[in-house]
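Subject: Re: docking follow-up (copper (II) ion)

Dear J.,

Thanks for your patience while I sorted out the input files. As discussed at Tuesday's group meeting, I've set up the holo structure prediction with copper (II) ion included as the bound ligand rather than trying to dock it afterwards. The sequence and the ligand SMILES I used are pasted below, so you can double-check that they match what you have on your end before we go further.
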Amino acid sequence: MRTVTRLAGFAVGLAAIFGTTYGIGRVVDRAPVVEGRHDGDAAPATGERGGTADRLPGGLLVSERGYTLEPVDAPADEFAFRIAGPDGRPVTRYDVAHDKQMHLIVARRDLSGFRHVHPELAPDGTWRVDTPLAGPGQWRAFADFAPTGGEPLTLGVDVTVPGELTERPLPAPATSTTVDGYTVTLTGTPQPGRTSPLTLTVSRDGQPVTDLEPYLGAYGHLVALRRGDLAYLHVHPDGTPGDGRTRPGPAVTFLAEVPSAGSYRLYLDFQHGGRVHTAEFTVVTGGAPTGAAAPTPSGPAPTGGADHGTPGHGHN
Ligand SMILES: [Cu+2]
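The structure tokens for the complex came back this morning:
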């Protein structure tokens, strides 16, 4: 269940773990790998029952396949929610994926303020966590989980934190960023409709970091959110700690596929020195890489680095 990756098994592996395969863009070229058969032969014959919802990226729906994400009133310093099941009652049993029964990811609608936290489950099915909503804004909260006996799922809900809203412009695309004294560089650009490698390389004080610590069963966790609708992609590394081939840095490679051309914000969680750090990147995917057939002929021109196609965003 935890060995994602390898090109061939990638989409299926993600379906097995997070059920976000629809988000990874298997839109046109084959039957969607959905309703996650966990053994790698997600049969097209059984994959169509959800209709168009099967083809949506994760996190766009508050209710899917009978499960609904319901925020619960909570003190200002806490965030609480339930997952209502097909019978309308709160779900109380979950499978563990990446060491946790529930992964809660939040980001503002302007893609600022990303946090990835792990709430605690009360016996009545209420999940609670010290609020990750760091200040006013329109937030999107994603619950990434697998109900026991059900399929992995990512549901999303909007949450407003009142106060003075300051829209933050999306940072310009860049291939290097710093966080907590670490420099992280990004190699590769995700391509719509196909799997391509993304490598993130961590250094500190000019020295490669070669002793990354496993965090939730991996040397890195990568979430990508699409600008405009916050479609959610959770991508896992190509290789896991202890598999005999994956080294603890400085490079962590992911196999990623995005559902469309556009701007994405990438959030890399990695652990070093006993702490989790989050490096963020803006990437803009074009229609096609050089020398390849364009999967989206009507899409924007390839690369160029600028946040093209978005009126009013050429200033940085
Ligand atoms: Cu998590």
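A couple of observations from a first look. Residues 10-18 form the longest helix (9 residues). The two ends are 42 Å apart (CA to CA).

Let me know if you'd like me to rerun anything.

Best regards,
T.
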